[in-house]
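FORM 7B: Structural annotation worksheet

SECTION A. Query
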Amino acid sequence: MSNTEKKSLNWGHAIIGVFILFGAFMAYFYVNMTHETIELVGDHYYEDGQKFQKKIDQRKETALLAEKVELQFNASSKEVKLSIPQGSHDVKVNFFRPSSAAQDKSFTLKKPSDSTWTISGEFLSKGPWKINIEWMIADKTYMNDQRILVP
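SECTION B. Predicted structure
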């Protein structure tokens, strides 16, 4: 065998190359995923689970209402417009960010003078948000959940 002969790649070299590339991809994937923080479980998940039946009952009562809560999100101005039924009081609006509990925000309106309420959404970062709205009419609590996606 002389030095002038060409060395060529065969299928064995290709298989080894594929294994090396696959291992590098898996290492890259592992490193990136271990640094990602996703907080899908709250601090008080057991107590929240105990209250779940109450939430189901509130949703059933809300479905029976003639006048519904309407939520509109304007992405260009980052404003959330909320229309609540007449006679509502103690309105609570909670914004939940699934990937970061530090970005969660709550608003409360005791006795609204108007049935339309505008919330500035400057705090809304890009991505999915869950909005939970609770309000009272007389002594009964109602609840509505909505999801928005901030572009």
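SECTION C. Observations
Residues 26 and 32 are 10 Å apart (CA to CA). The radius of gyration is 26 Å.

SECTION D. Sign-off
Analyst initials: ____
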